[in-house]
From TrEMBL:
Pfam families linked to this entry: Dimer_Tnp_hAT
GO MF entries: protein dimerization activity
Domain HAT C-terminal dimerisation, first and last residues per copy: 339-397
Protein's UniProt name: HAT C-terminal dimerisation domain-containing protein
Length: 421
């Protein structure tokens, strides 16, 4: 979709150079988390342990009974392959019930009644997962990812709102960036170690990083003037640099890269969110010229708006507005009062602004309805009926307000075979 050479974006722009490409912000945020979770080996291993824990307990009813014996409130959940922001639901039970889950694993590993090959294998798996769970590195990773996913989850839900506009999206993204920048500090890293130490004390394990038992690898230099890199021998410093800093740096860089187009669109249209309060004529003229340039053809001969006329129309329109800055309300005011001929450039600019999509989450949820409508019991459903049932399922609020009796009468009259002369 986003390929600028041969993707859908490039093909549409070949037909119309004035088209705007706006990627789904909620999906872009998921890709940010995906980039961060795959930036280092320890992050990949962390989520593998989370998934392994769920798979182990859910694969057997006997293990699940032992799990429910110790864990009374939250239950472990699988990791979502697409909705990364929802992975907070998989981490939350482990974050606040680490000791209970460890006790369940210990009971399964010490159950001597499991003498079959499958039973012995279950005991071995439980012992291996329990040893990974009590690792201080895993506990620190658990605290870090829970804090990050909590912040990202709030941003993701806000970005999926139907009423969200470009300015609000940029503000929320900037708030997330500020949180990540503040979170990447020595003070917060010490707080993370304190919280991880509290979990370690509950488990009765050592609250410090274990020394690296592997031989330190010396990398070969290719030039004589290059000095050898000093290896990091301190495990705490190694975790801080190669895990904590690397994840946050990768997340910040990915946010800057994936939301750069949204920031460009925000700079172009931001002045239209403050029409009634514009006082600086030079700044307004500059914004109008930038918008005209963006809405012009490649040869510069055709443009959807005229910057000088747009600037004058905004100054005139301020007299009719009573501190109203909502673009949708202003467009409705122009249409209801039949002022399109007086403000044609403002009318076109507001229409383009209001049709720029901020998120496609609602459309993706509509596609997911097809799995509910067309299941294995309706495998031979026709296309027309599938479209009709999917429309009713998606627009269920409108469907609930319809009068069933009138629909039955209309259907009966349309299907009646008796012709009245």
């Amino acid at each position: 979709m986003r390929g600028y050479k041969s993707g859908v974006q490039a093909r549409i722009r070949n037909l119309n150079s004035r088209a705007f490409y706006v990627p789904c912000n909620a999906h872009s945020l998921n890709l940010v988390l995906n980039d961060s979770a795959n930036c280092c080996l320890d992050a990949v291993l962390f989520f593998d342990i989370i998934q392994e824990m769920y798979t182990f307990f859910s694969a057997s009813t006997q293990r699940w009974d032992v799990f429910r014996k110790y864990v009374k409130n939250l239950t472990v959940k699988p990791l979502s392959a697409t909705r990364w922001s929802s992975r907070i639901d998989a981490i939350r039970p482990i974050r606040f019930q680490t000791a209970e889950i460890y006790d369940a694993l210990e009971e399964i590993s010490e159950d001597t009644s499991l003498t079959s090959v499958t039973g012995v294998r279950s005991r071995s798996e439980a012992k291996g997962i329990a040893e990974k769970l009590i690792s201080f590195k895993f506990l620190c990773s658990l605290v870090i990812w829970y804090d990050l996913l909590c912040e990202i989850n709030v941003t993701s839900k806000l970005l999926q709102s139907i009423s969200l506009n470009i300015i609000e999206s940029i503000n929320q993204i900037n708030n997330t960036k500020i949180f990540l920048q503040k979170y990447r500090s020595d003070e917060n890293f010490e707080k993370i170690l304190t919280q991880a130490s509290y979990l370690a004390n509950e488990l009765g394990v050592q609250d410090s990083f274990s020394l690296n038992q592997f031989r330190t690898r010396r990398r070969k230099t290719h030039f004589d003037y290059e000095s050898r890199d000093t290896p990091i021998t301190d495990p705490k410093q190694n975790f801080k640099i190669n895990f904590f800093h690397q994840i946050l740096d990768n997340m910040l860089q990915s946010i800057n890269d994936r939301f750069i187009q949204l920031e460009d669109h925000s700079k172009l249209f931001s002045f239209l969110y403050n029409i009634s309060n514009v006082n600086n004529y030079e700044h307004l003229m500059k914004c109008c010229k930038d918008l005209q340039l963006a809405l012009s053809s490649n040869d510069g001969l055709n443009s959807d708006i005229n910057s000088v006329e747009l600037c004058e129309e905004i100054n005139t329109l301020q007299k009719y507005l009573q501190n109203e800055n909502d673009p949708k309300a202003i467009l409705q005011f122009i249409c209801e009062n039949k002022l399109i001929e007086l403000f044609p450039n403002v009318y076109v600019a507001l229409r383009i602004l209001l049709t720029l999509p901020v998120t496609a989450a609602s459309a993706e949820r509509s596609f997911s309805k097809l799995k509910i409508v067309k299941n294995y019991l309706r495998s031979q459903i026709s296309q027309d009926r599938l479209v009709g049932l999917a429309t009713i399922s998606i627009e269920n609020q409108i469907a609930n307000d319809l009068d069933i009796d009138d629909l039955v009468k209309d259907f009966a009259s349309a299907k009646a075979r008796k012709i009245h002369f």
